[in-house]
Design goal:
The chain is of the alpha+beta class. It has one domain. Helix content is about 20%, strand content about 30%. A hairpin with a 6-residue loop joins strand 1 and strand 2. Helix 1 runs antiparallel to helix 3. The chain is globular and about 45 Å long.
């Protein structure tokens, strides 16, 4: 896996591109104060087309694997605030919307209506995690879907999965600790790309 760490708009943090098997997973914190996961495979997505793109993160991917392992386990355990939270009806309702009976995390983008938006699924295997991004063929009531990547918005205000967005933001904050040595280890021929 190649890692690119790119200074973001805030001047205080970084966004990331994880590159593997000719696919690019971008994790960024946008000016609207929401987190975005974006996956592209270099092929254009036609208007009205359904598509699925997978991205595998294995134990060989070191710290990136560990971050996704913590993310997955915290969501499955309902660990919102770094401790076992009491499961009230609100939390349980949103947990059951987010986690299916096979313990897959299924986040439908917070950009629009539930039945119109694309989805990111995170599933656990023996020593890896599979992120599956699914583009449905439904039109949005407003706006268009990106033809180059499948974009999942994780809203920090009014998410349909509130408060589980906190766990994803915690993972993004932990990503900030990926340093030059980690990047050089994963990219023996590629230097860190940081826009100052």
């Amino acid at each position: 896996m190649k890692i690119e760490k790119i200074a973001n708009w805030s001047g205080r943090g970084y966004d990331f591109k994880l590159i593997k098997d000719k696919k690019v997973l971008t994790i960024l914190y946008a000016r609207v104060l929401d987190l975005y996961f974006m996956l592209e495979d270099g092929e254009r997505i036609k208007f009205g087309e359904s598509k699925k793109i997978d991205f595998d993160i294995g134990i060989e991917d070191g710290k990136i694997y560990n971050l996704f392992d913590n993310l997955y386990n915290d969501v499955i355990a309902g660990n919102i605030f770094d401790e076992k939270d009491s499961i009230d009806n609100y939390l349980l309702f949103n947990y059951n919307r987010l986690v299916d009976t096979n313990k897959n995390i299924n986040w439908v983008s917070d950009d629009g209506l539930l039945d119109e938006e694309d989805m990111m699924s995170i599933s656990k295997n023996d020593n890896s995690y599979k992120l599956t991004f699914i583009r449905n063929n439904k039109r949005r009531s407003y706006g268009f879907k990106d033809p180059c990547s499948i974009i999942i918005r994780l809203s920090n205000s009014g998410s349909r999965y509130d408060p589980f967005n906190i766990i994803f933001m915690r993972m993004y904050q932990s990503l900030q600790n990926i340093d030059e040595k980690d990047i050089e280890k994963n990219n023996p021929k590629v230097k860190r790309r940081i826009k100052e």
